[in-house]
């Protein structure tokens, strides 16, 4: 039998009132006993219910937290002991207190604080940029060098999901790797079903739903990343499925009448699971500066000629260097990949930007940055 806490019926000073909580675990059952000792009222022992150990611990700890929260934020009242009444607890709590302990709880004004905290983790990550060009997509990342002992060009942050698809992420690196692993599973599942590479829109939709599921349950936490998905949908570029396997003569992957046209596509998936299609996207610590530079580029086909793929590589490097100015005291590596149509430089595959082109883009970016500094002086 669970034992009550405190000495029932013994005289106490007023400031000796206490709340004790003991959990008695026997076999697979838990009995929770809450005892309140307030003189001269005898202690009260109230079994809550018999439930499983895991559920009992969860419910009991939540009840204890809620009781503590109420006693510290609201006015206490004891009808039998007027001397115990106080008004010191009328002060309100800070924003988020009591509503940021679980990602399955909304605050009274409709905010999910755990998702907002995940967004803060993204804002501390390296700047990532995606540019949709007229003949492909460019992905770039500012990879901060945290130690001089790290091997150069190792620890890649931009990953290939399918032959025509790449993902760059900013935020918590382990979360990003899990995101990439799941994205590869989705791409493999799509190819197994439809005998074709997964379209960028379908991958963004599936990954958005997966990330959003991590905002619904208190047994998990939200992803601490924002991911940019870029790819070239080859539906109108190849006969069947990108010369991989023997796919259907029509349907997904084939030239079906009225089918969605292929081409470059860019999406960004946020910690909440929200995703949008973009002409240019940026995330990470330098996202504001990067967005300002992206808005200067002509990336909307309805407003004129869109920049080409090689020009997009040079612009991406310039934007990363410009966004890095706020953290100029930290050394970084520039990581870049691109994907084009089947008749383009990458032959429809997501690949790293060639070393010669990347070095040229970095040289031009540094030169442009030095020119801006000279103009300011």
TrEMBL record:
GO terms for biological process: ubiquitin-dependent protein catabolic process. PROSITE patterns: PROTEASOME_ALPHA_1 (PS00388), PROTEASOME_ALPHA_2 (PS51475). Transmembrane segments: none annotated. This is Proteasome alpha-type subunits domain-containing protein. The keyword Heme does not apply. InterPro entries: Ntn_hydrolases_N (IPR029055), Proteasome_alpha (IPR050115), Proteasome_alpha-type (IPR023332), Proteasome_asu_N (IPR000426), Proteasome_sua/b (IPR001353). One of its GO terms (cellular component) is proteasome core complex, alpha-subunit complex. Keywords: Proteasome. Belongs to the peptidase T1A family. Residues 99-121 form the Proteasome alpha-type subunits domain. The keyword RNA-binding does not apply.
